Amino acid sequence: MRVRPARLDDLPAVYAICDELGTVAEAEPRTRELLGHVYAGPYVVAPETRSVVVVDELGVAGYLLCATDTAAFTAWCESSWWPGLRADYPRAAVGRAVVDQEVVDLIHAPPAASSRVVAEYPAHLHIDMLPRVRGKGLGSRLIRDLLVDLSRRGIPGVHLDVGSNNARAIALYSRLGFVELERGPDSVFMGRRTEL
Question: Which helix (H) or strand (E) holds 170?
Answer without folding.
Answer: helix 167-175
